[in-house]
Amino acid sequence: MADELTDRAVLVQRGEEARMILSSKLFEEAIDNLRAAYTEALLKVPNTDDLGRFRYVEALRQVATVRRHLETVLTSGEIAQSEIVEMNAKDGLIARLVRTF
């Protein structure tokens, strides 16, 4: 039980860190700048340069992957927080039941 609580507390902390990053104007600016730079470069690649186009498309996908990862960490933290609340509620109920008997 204590290990589960510790594991969930770590997830909650990571979720809070992800929330701070995702809400950061600097992070948003960096993501927007990367996306714009890669898109501009992609549009300048000659039609015959398949590898060049592939690299910029892959770079754009990786920018999206970073954001998705942080959103997943955030969601995991929110779920872990709900589970902690639920575990504490169950512990409180069990303690009350034990005291009444």
Secondary structure: elements and pairs:
Elements: H1 2-22, H2 25-44, H3 50-100
Helix pairs in contact: 1-3, 2-3
> Structural class of the helices, strands and pairings?
mainly alpha
Q: Beta-sheet strand percentage?
A: under 5%
Backbone shape? elongated
| Total of domains | 1
Question: How many strand elements?
Answer: 0
| Residues in helix, % | over 70%
SSE order in H/E notation?
HHH
How many DSSP H or I helices?
3
Low-confidence stretches: none
Largest sheet: none
Intertermini distance: 23 Å
**How confident is the prediction overall: mean pLDDT?**
90
- What is the rounded Rg? 22 Å
Descriptive labels:
elongated; 3 helices; 101 residues; mainly alpha
Protein model, in words:
The mean pLDDT is 90. With 101 residues, the protein is mainly α. Helix 1 packs across helix 3 and helix 2 packs antiparallel against helix 3. The chain is built from three helices and no strands.
